[in-house]
């Protein structure tokens, strides 16, 4: 970690522990503590205490590379749990409670490697979207563990996904009112097919395709 906002940046901490390349990290604060989670080709998900400069958890449930990690604010605000979500080449999405040191849910409806994952910024992060090498995007209800929608259209691996924080309407006006079950929220996805696509989160219909990249869209 680097100290910034000063005339000269300096290294503060180095976290060692992974045995292979680190593919993803996320940063969050639960209560008064700051944490980093990380996913690696060593098949582990690790949690690091930033203030005390130490690893506090290592989860070994994935059977292949851990592609992406995200802290779940939904679990923290609704169930008082400190939870990480991870996606993997083993075709699963898993949830880990690093306070109680246990695995929670497993989402296993994708049929190939799961790449990008993203929680919704609305409804307290209740919804999760995921992109996969099976060329689909899925929308999940985190509370019920159900796969709500499948989005088809990419012709190759879906590498990254995002969920819009706002709604739109037919007049192209934006607002932040509404919940899933109404109109307006969208998912964005990037793929090995070199395109970026926009999807209606309710109907699964594709709105737009952006073409221009000459290679994979990774982020």
From TrEMBL:
Coiled-coil intervals: none
Alphabetical keyword list: Repeat, WD repeat
Sequence ranges of the WD repeats: 15-58, 59-106, 107-150, 183-209
CDD domains registered for this protein in UniProt: WD40
Keyword Nucleus carried by entry: no
PROSITE patterns assigned to the protein according to its UniProt record, in alphabetical order: WD_REPEATS_1, WD_REPEATS_2, WD_REPEATS_REGION
InterPro entries hit by this protein: WD40/YVTN_repeat-like_dom_sf (IPR015943), WD40_PAC1 (IPR020472), WD40_repeat_CS (IPR019775), WD40_repeat_dom_sf (IPR036322), WD40_rpt (IPR001680), WDR86-like (IPR044715)
Pfam families named among the record's database cross-references: WD40
Name of the protein described by the UniProt record: Uncharacterized protein
């Amino acid at each position: 970690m680097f100290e910034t906002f000063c005339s000269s940046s300096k290294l503060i901490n180095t976290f060692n522990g992974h045995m292979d390349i680190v593919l993803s990290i996320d940063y969050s604060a639960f209560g008064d503590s700051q944490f980093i989670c990380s996913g690696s080709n060593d098949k582990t998900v690790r949690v690091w205490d930033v203030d005390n400069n130490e690893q506090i958890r290592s989860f070994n449930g994935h059977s292949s590379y851990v592609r992406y990690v995200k802290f779940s604010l939904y679990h923290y605000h609704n169930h008082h749990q400190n939870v990480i979500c991870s996606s993997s080449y083993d075709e699963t999405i898993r949830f880990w409670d690093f306070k109680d040191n246990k695995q929670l849910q497993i989402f296993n409806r994708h049929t190939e490697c799961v790449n990008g994952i993203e929680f919704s910024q609305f409804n307290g992060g209740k919804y999760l979207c995921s992109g996969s090498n099976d060329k689909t995007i899925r929308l999940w209800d985190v509370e019920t563990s159900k796969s709500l929608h499948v989005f088809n259209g990419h012709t190759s691996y879906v590498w990254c996904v995002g969920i819009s924080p706002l709604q739109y309407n037919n007049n192209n006006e934006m607002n932040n009112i509404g919940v899933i079950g109404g109109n307006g929220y969208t998912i964005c996805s990037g793929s090995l097919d070199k395109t970026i696509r926009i999807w209606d989160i309710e109907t699964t219909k594709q709105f737009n395709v952006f073409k221009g990249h000459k290679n994979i869209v990774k982020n």
